[in-house]
Amino acid sequence: MLNFELGKYRKMVVAIALFLVFDLGVLVLSFAISAQIRDDAIDVNLVSRQRMLTQRITKTALQLEQRIKNNQPYRDHLLELEQATSTFDKTLQAYRSGGMVPVGDGKEIMRNALTDKNARQLLDDTLAQWESLREVLHGMLRANPISPNLAASVARQTEAANDRLLAATNNFTLRVQELAESKATSLRIVQVAGIALAVLNFLVILFHFIPNLRANDKELQRVKRETDNILRTTQEGLFLLDPDFRMGSQQSRALTSIFGSQPQPGTDFLSMMRPLVSPKTLDTAREYINLLLKHDVMEKLVSALNPLDRVEMTVNNDAVGVDTRYLQFNFSRVVEDNRVTQLLVTATDITRRVRLEKELKDSEERAQGQMSLLLKLLQADPVILKDFFKVATEALDQINHILETQAGQFENFASKVIAIHRISHRIKGDASSLGLQILEQSFHELEEVLVGMREQKNLSGEDLLPVAVRIKALYSNLDLIQNAVNRMSQIRGVVSVEPSKPPHDPEIGKQAFVTQWRNFVETLAQRQGKSVALNYQGIDVTALPQPMRGAVSSIVNQFLRNALVHGIEAGETRAAHGKSPTGSINIFISENEEGDIELSFRDDGQGIDFNAIRAAAVRVGRLSPEAAEKADMRTLAATIFDPGVSTSKITDKDAGRGAGLDAVKDMVRRMGGNIRVGTTFGQYCHFRVFLPRSKQQHHVAIPALAEAK
Amino acid sequence: MDEEQLRIFVGLVQFYFEHEGGEAAAVGSPFLGEPDALPVMDYTGVIGISGSRRGCVYVTSSRKLLQALLEFMGETDFSEANYADLAGEIANTISGNARQHFGHEFMISVPVIVHGHSTDIRMPNQVKAYVIPLHWRKFEAALVVSLE
Question: Which domains can be identified in chain A, with CATH numbers?
Answer without folding.
Answer: 2-206 (1.20.120.240), 237-349 (3.30.450.20), 364-492 (1.20.120.160), 508-691 (3.30.565.10)
